[in-house]
UniProtKB/TrEMBL annotation, chain A:
Family: Belongs to the ABC-2 integral membrane protein family.
Protein name per the record: ABC transporter permease
Subcellular location: Cell membrane
InterPro entries for the chain: ABC-2_transporter_component (IPR051449), ABC2_TM (IPR013525), ABC2_TM_bact-type (IPR047817)
TrEMBL record, chain B:
Compartments where located: Cell membrane
Protein name per the record: ABC transporter permease
Main subcellular localisation: membrane
Record family assignment: Belongs to the ABC-2 integral membrane protein family.
InterPro entries the UniProt entry points to: ABC-2_transporter_component (IPR051449), ABC2_TM (IPR013525), ABC2_TM_bact-type (IPR047817)
Keywords: Cell membrane, Membrane, Transmembrane, Transmembrane helix, Transport
Domain of life of the organism encoding this protein: Bacteria
Length: 368, 372
């Protein structure tokens, strides 16, 4: 036991000596949380649009003013001809164009029907759908105001309540996502590389011929990263509560316990990678190139997993970040207890044990 | 020039010798490009809805069948109490709850107005948002039908109406893959270029071979060129493979000029490789280089406009994205491939990327010291 502690101390010294890495290690979650919390949003706003007002009459002016007043749009170019419009689309300087026909006022009021054309840049399909629906609802509101005297009967009024996140901020879904992402990649990379490094420089051989059990060698390498990662969890939570106003609604201790489990899963995955590879570059490429995008995509915080093809839905089950994301969301945002997440906890534990067993099996073989 | 040729020979040999890495560098992006666009799908369908029908009238039945037959919604709960329906939200088995109050039909007919309650699980931002929008528009449609049914034609007074004709350009079928594939390809090319160069020089430092090069009369810029060119070639190879995958699997054929696309990517790769070199001049170990690259990569990807639109970011974040080379590549790829934009449309982006390339590479050369 004493030996073990000395070993951990040595590993800690290794980690703490590398100031640049430490800076990144602790700086990264902070920067990410701030980016996620403040910069990223799935909401569409400030979209630049063009208006082709061929009518130039009081009614079109009124409607344009209302479109301009909306926070969703930024009318950059108010008057344009069709050719300029096409160019603007190609330059990407507008996302949507609204075209008023000549004689708008006249046709609206006296001929009972006028056509407004809305053209969207559908290279981004969601944006196009959302913006079109925003414009449509502004136009309908305007129409309702015009028709005020003859208000429509038999109205069904939907009342929408946004649960958990009334202002539809990005942070409540992104904070759990960042936790999953950062912990996953940091833990996997750090352990994978640090063990392979010893292999590459040959110092692993020395450790293995020592009377020290291989399992303990590896555990002592993982412990410092476990502690550093827990510090990261704490700093992410503090930022989330005090800077982003996303409170921890559930039990903090439960959250830390689950985080510890997840960190151990990731450390084991790192060990597994390092057992299977022989150079730092390969280990890094696998843990970074191979895992960065899949973790973002399959953890479920960017894209709903139910939308994926069945094969990918099945595949997403082996991504530990998916389960951790569900757990953090449940504890932190929904304020649920252990009874709601025992299944996910069990799966995560299962993945960990599985990885651990196959790593140990592969590790017994002497280095060649 | 002869020196550079020899250096190149050495670098290429080193790359080709390491079959494992070479295979990984080429195969991994292709596999990811094959799979990831299928996963990155915002197409909103299968929104799980729980309906609480307290009215049990023909009206409420009709509304429910209208919702379930729309193709967007999947009824995962029916006629629970609100509490039970809320449990479904908690376990993520439902995204939306629609509650139809008692006497829905009666009140609508007699009192001219009736409320419907919708509760949305807003943690899943996009899904919640779009789900709410779709549900509201279905209800609006339904409302129109009810009205037509209830109002006798004679009572119709012709009120002013606006007909909205909307059309979708560049991607009329609103295919989400078409949007994601160029963006994901941009990220993969960036990662290959950035990571490989960053790690390569640091490795020479770590192993000590760089000292040997330092004592030779090789000029700094020769050395840098020798490092740049192989990865530039590799980047172009990966990019080409990516375009082929986009074409074969997703049927995406660049609408614009393919040479323009390659010219932009070529300049872009110089910028990214320069960035990798710059990082490697600052680091002593591969581990450090990897972490710093990882940090920037995360920021680049998340703020590059791949998943969330840059337009919607706050002003300070928009300023930050101006220093993000990836955001220009994603933008230009989508412009040329989807919209068929020409040289004139991308002049600004090309200029900025060229500037990035010059600044980053000069900085890297300046920062690379032959004596340590």
């Amino acid at each position: 036991m004493k030996q073990f502690l000395i070993f951990i101390k040595k590993e800690f010294a290794h980690v703490l000596r590398d100031r640049k890495t430490l800076l990144i290690l602790f700086g990264m979650p902070v920067v990410q949380i701030l980016i996620f919390g403040f910069a990223l949003t799935n909401e569409v706003k400030n979209a630049r649009i063009a208006i082709l007002d061929q009518a130039n009459d009081p009614a079109s002016h009124q409607l344009i003013t209302q479109i301009e007043a909306s926070k969703y749009f930024e009318t950059e170019i108010a008057v344009m001809n069709p050719k300029q419009m096409e160019e603007a689309f190609k330059q990407g300087s507008i996302r949507l164009a609204v075209i008023f026909p000549a004689n708008f006022n006249n046709e609206l009021l006296h001929q009972n029907g006028v056509k407004i054309q809305v053209i969207a840049d559908a290279s981004d399909p969601n944006n196009a759908t959302t913006l079109t629906s925003y414009v449509t609802s502004i136009i309908q509101d305007y129409l309702a105001a015009v028709n005020k005297t003859t208000s429509a009967p038999y109205r069904i009024v939907p009342e929408i309540r946004m649960l958990y996140n009334p202002q539809l901020k990005g942070a409540p879904s992104f904070v759990p996502g960042v936790m999953a992402l950062v912990l996953m990649l940091v833990c996997v990379m750090m352990t994978a590389v640090s063990i392979v490094k010893e292999k590459e420089t040959g110092t692993m051989e020395i450790l293995l011929v020592s009377p020290f059990k291989p399992l303990l060698v590896i555990t002592s390498k993982a412990v410092p990263y476990l502690i550093l990662s827990l510090v990261n969890v704490a700093s992410i939570l503090l930022l989330s509560v005090f800077v982003l106003d996303v409170p921890v609604n559930g039990n903090v201790f439960l959250l830390f316990a689950e985080s510890t489990l997840f960190i151990i899963t990731c450390l084991t995955l790192g060990i597994f990678i390092s057992v299977k590879t022989s150079s730092q570059q390969v280990a890094m490429l696998i843990s970074l190139m191979g895992m960065l995008l899949p973790t973002i995509l399959f953890s479920g915080f960017m894209f709903p997993i139910e939308n994926m093809p069945v094969a990918l839905q099945v595949f997403s089950n082996i991504i530990p970040a998916k389960w951790y994301y569900i757990i953090v969301k449940a504890i932190m945002i929904k304020g649920l207890g252990f009874s709601a997440i025992w299944k996910e906890t069990l799966i995560l534990s299962g993945i960990t044990v599985f990885l651990l067993i196959i790593s140990l099996k592969s590790f017994k073989i002497r280095l060649s | 020039m002869r020196t550079v040729r020899f250096l190149l020979q050495k670098e290429f040999r080193q790359i080709f010798r390491n079959r494992a890495i070479l295979a990984m560098v080429i195969v991994m992006p292709v596999i990811q490009l094959l799979i990831l666009p299928l996963a990155a799908n915002y197409e909103v369908k299968n929104i799980n809805i729980a309906v609480i029908d307290n009215d049990h009238s023909s009206y409420s039945q009709k509304l429910i069948s209208k919702i379930t037959s729309s193709g967007y919604f999947k009824l995962t709960g029916y006629n629970f109490s609100f509490k039970e329906a809320f449990r479904l939200i908690e376990t993520d088995d439902a995204d939306l709850i629609l509650e139809i109050p008692h006497d829905f039909e009666r009140n609508l007919v007699r009192e001219n107005e009736q409320k419907l309650f919708i509760a949305v699980n807003a943690i899943n931002g996009t899904k919640a948002n779009l789900g709410g929008v779709y549900l509201t528009s279905i209800i609006k449609d339904y409302n129109g039908e009810v009205r037509l049914q209830l109002i006798s034609p004679t009572k119709f007074n012709r009120a002013p109406a606006i007909d909205i004709a909307s059309s979708n350009w560049f991607n009329p079928f609103l295919n989400y893959h078409v949007f994601m594939v160029p963006g994901i390809l941009a990220i993969l090319v960036t990662m290959i270029g950035g990571f490989l160069t960053a790690l390569n020089i640091v490795k020479e430092k770590e192993v000590g071979t760089i000292e040997q090069i330092n004592v030779t009369p090789i000029k700094k810029h020769h050395f840098i060129l020798g490092k740049l060119i192989p990865f530039w070639v590799l980047g172009n190879v990966v990019f080409t493979l990516g375009l082929i995958v986009a074409w074969f699997i997703y049927g995406i054929i660049p609408a614009g000029n393919i040479f323009l696309l390659y010219s932009f990517v070529s300049v872009y790769l110089l910028a990214v490789l320069g960035f990798g070199l710059l990082i490697s001049t600052f680091c002593d170990t591969q581990q450090q280089a990897m972490f710093i690259m990882f940090f920037f990569m995360m920021v680049f990807i998340l703020m590059g406009g791949l998943f969330t639109s840059i337009d919607s970011m706050p002003d300070w974040a928009k300023e930050v994205t101006k220093f993000n080379p990836v955001s220009y590549l994603i933008e230009v790829m989508r412009m040329i491939i989807l919209k068929g934009s020409g040289f004139k449309d991308i002049t600004r982006q090309l200029g900025i990327i060229a500037l990035f390339a010059v600044v980053l590479n000069s900085w890297a050369i300046f920062n690379y010291k032959k004596t340590s």
